[in-house]
Amino acid sequence: MAQRYILRARRILTPLEEISDGLVAVSDGVIQFVGTASSIESPVDAQWIDCGDGTIVPGFIDVHIHGSGGDSVMDGASAVARVAAFITAFGVTSWLPTLTPRETITEMSEIIRENLDGAQRVLRGAEVLGLHLEGPFLSPKRPGAIRSEWFRPPSVAEAGALLEAGSGHIRLMTLAPELPAGLDLVRYLVAQKVVASIGHSDATHAEALAAVEFGLSHATHTFNAMRGFQHRDPGVVGAVLVTDAINCELIADGVHVDPLAMRLLIRTKGEHRVLLITDAVAPAGLGNGSFEFDGRPIEVRDGRATLADGTIAGSVATFDGNLRRIVRECGLPLRAAVVMATLTPARAIGVADRKGYLAGGRDADLVVLDRDLTVSLTMVRGEIVYNRLEG
Fold first, then answer.
1. What local confidence, expressed as pLDDT, does residue 77 receive?
2. 114 sits in which H/E element
């Protein structure tokens, strides 16, 4: 018989409503009940878990992550499995392994297939919901830490080859729509039910809005590697801020975006349009040291990863750390921050029918946070994959 659990906590954030002294009942990997403790009796075959004064929230969804714990998803199957296990300690229950471009479409296709194989091997860890391709159709004017020599002009044919390699599992693609044929690529991706995201882009405000008209609905690591806001040149950031149709990724690690800019974005867009991401690279969670990023050395010091020239090389933050920072440095209510970590990313990539919200019939993905907003327990589809409560 499948394990059944009943978790009791001081508070539950579904996250759209708050339940005091609440229970979540789980069976066969699915939530059976969410409500107050007085409204359910314990079945004899259920294991009760007392979460004390903790808060139960939906599992976190990271749609932009390159690696963690010393592994990069570009290294394939075994690396994907290790990352999936590692990030559960920080509350991530589902994710999109994010791939950066390599020299040829053929090589990228092979890496995609290897990652999908890795997703199939993940038996105990955060669930892989698909892939995020950050490129290769990006602007060399805004490379960030990605090698610009790997960038390619937008091509529907080449994008089709990548999607074919992904066998329907590519959910999100970052591109620069202002490049020649960029709008054709946006239209093609949307027709293929792939979320088109603007990123590593030098688009003007007008060019970004044109892409929205073709179906673009997402912004990759907002503020970073995109044309910023100037009062006579609003750029990509200006388009993102004023367009309701765009969901905005935010790296809330305190390195990529100043807290004031984070507050501006959240105040302008609201928690239902801003989604937390880590953009984590392999050294995330390992502390200070010397590491490698795409074949180049990087240094990690005090939460900042940089190339030799000082360019920020992805993030080394953890998801729960970003959540805490949003609450503490931006003054955001925990409920709103949890929306940004759960329901908003679920909606952005089309899985909100089963992820991102605690309710009967949905996947039993949940996290218990202690009073310091540190993860105490993580459950993926009804399986406890991380548990500090027992310690």
1. 86
2. helix 105-121
Domain boundaries, the chain: 4-57+356-387, 60-348
pLDDT digits (tens, 9 = 90+) for 93-126: 999 999 999 888 998 999 998 887 766 666 689 9
Tokens linked to 296: 């180049």
Global pTM reads 0.96
Strand partners, 268: none
Joined together, the tokens standing for residue 235 give 């750029």
Q: Find out whether 219 and 192 touch, Cβ atoms under 8 Å.
A: no
56 in helix, strand or coil? Answer: strand
The CATH number that domain 60-348 falls under is 3.20.20.140
Task: Report d(CA 116, CA 120) in Å as an integer.
Answer: 6
Tokens of 132: 């995020």
* 380, 88 contact by CB (below 8 A): yes
The alpha helices in 144-234, defined as continuous H runs, are 156-166, 182-191, 205-213
Q: Tell me which architecture the domain covering 4-57+356-387 has in CATH.
A: Roll (2.30)
Residue the block writes with tokens 């991706």: 189
**Distance in angstroms (rounded) separating the CA atoms of residues 219 and 274:** 10
Q: How far apart are the first and last CA of the chain?
A: 26
Q: What is the DSSP string of 66-96?
A: -EETTEEGGG-HHHHHHHHHHGGGGTEEEEE
Residues annotated as catalytic are 279
Q: Would 4-57+356-387 and 60-348 be classified into the same CATH topology?
A: no
